[in-house]
């Protein structure tokens, strides 16, 4: 805070310089006072000035105030100050100075110009009061209620805010929303690019979030990559959710890295989904994990029938353990077609779980939950083992180019015995490795460390092919396409739908196909839904595709009929 007052006010007071000196003497007991000439050279200081600056009077007189410069303020701060007092106006502001021993102190400062006969300043009297204690209290309060990395309000501040909103809502009978979100696969960013880039990413994310904050100071960092937004007007909940998702549409460029990220967002409404801060955060958290099942940028408003309600998380985890022990899962097959010949050349296998109480859970629901409770590698091994056994039964009915594609987590691929166990299974069933394709999500390539590269190279050496799933949504640095022996790119559904309505999608698909051709890679279009999209994909010379246009994911029995032409 600083500014100028009209110098005419000083003229009307009609103080002489001597009278101002007398005033200085009166202030000596309570204020920090200095007199400088028109150039800012210190001519006189009082004892309090010496005490707070820790310089002697002899060390100060003859110097200018740069001796106290802390480096805290920009040059423009002092330029404006000199412009003001040079025009004969009084300047007021808060200044951070550095004492002789290196310590910082704050002073509330008033600088009064004393004008000569020519109307120009001849001397300046500065009157200061020490406000360091007040500043420190504000600083301590800020630290207590704000995240030190991003500067956003923290968990402690969030609790107070929600309690305040509940109190306000009770008085005015109104609703408010709690939006809970985290960054998908943030661990991959930290592990592969380093914690420095991870921290830079969080700070940039906080900056972007602040720009869309329609209420000011309503984004909170819980911990790690978890954030909360408090929305007072629930009629804007879908609009605000879309704005949060849009924050992730542009890539993040940090030092030498460029990559995309996505978010999963869960929303709870007071009082319908909870009447306390803890309950609202819990239900929003449940909705967030439901959003993760949709993959990529997505949000869901909480519903009472969602898993985890009333502590069903532990019940569901127990059921999942039991299903693994009792072999309660089933495989589904999503056939992959040669788009120009219209014949099946393989299939992507997916896991499905049918529980008597819960009902049907498909792969997009099972895998995020399994990852959350540490069962993802067990699920992967079940799928891999059963898919290979089934592949052996398909062998008499398919040609040598037929492939089964299995989407595996990075955690499973990096296991020490993974390749040995996999090749042993193939040998026991007399299966050629090239009938098996392992899919890795493009976002998984953020975890591209030396162990992963070594595993992929060894898989390739064994004859097993590697494809990148969800291509176009994740790691925009394409070096891995040269460094790792990849055979296939599977274009993400966000680009392969509405090709006739969204020209940018068709351009993106064309660019990916061109890139794949240059690198001698095959291309599969994911989730083709209609004939219009299929026709455009054929025009763009996309080789292969899968999706609802051809059929729903098939049971083992139905897929067997398809490949046997029964």
Automatic annotation (TrEMBL):
<feature type="domain" description="GGDEF">
    <location>
        <begin position="174"/>
        <end position="304"/>
    </location>
</feature>
<dbReference type="InterPro" id="IPR035919">
    <property type="entry name" value="EAL_sf"/>
</dbReference>
<dbReference type="InterPro" id="IPR001610">
    <property type="entry name" value="PAC"/>
</dbReference>
<dbReference type="InterPro" id="IPR000160">
    <property type="entry name" value="GGDEF_dom"/>
</dbReference>
<dbReference type="InterPro" id="IPR035965">
    <property type="entry name" value="PAS-like_dom_sf"/>
</dbReference>
<dbReference type="Pfam" id="PF13426">
    <property type="entry name" value="PAS_9"/>
</dbReference>
<feature type="domain" description="PAC">
    <location>
        <begin position="89"/>
        <end position="143"/>
    </location>
</feature>
<dbReference type="InterPro" id="IPR000014">
    <property type="entry name" value="PAS"/>
</dbReference>
<dbReference type="Pfam" id="PF00990">
    <property type="entry name" value="GGDEF"/>
</dbReference>
<dbReference type="InterPro" id="IPR052155">
    <property type="entry name" value="Biofilm_reg_signaling"/>
</dbReference>
<dbReference type="InterPro" id="IPR001633">
    <property type="entry name" value="EAL_dom"/>
</dbReference>
<dbReference type="InterPro" id="IPR043128">
    <property type="entry name" value="Rev_trsase/Diguanyl_cyclase"/>
</dbReference>
<dbReference type="InterPro" id="IPR000700">
    <property type="entry name" value="PAS-assoc_C"/>
</dbReference>
<feature type="domain" description="EAL">
    <location>
        <begin position="313"/>
        <end position="566"/>
    </location>
</feature>
<protein>
    <submittedName>
        <fullName>EAL domain-containing protein</fullName>
    </submittedName>
</protein>
<dbReference type="InterPro" id="IPR029787">
    <property type="entry name" value="Nucleotide_cyclase"/>
</dbReference>
<dbReference type="Pfam" id="PF00563">
    <property type="entry name" value="EAL"/>
</dbReference>
<feature type="domain" description="PAS">
    <location>
        <begin position="33"/>
        <end position="63"/>
    </location>
</feature>
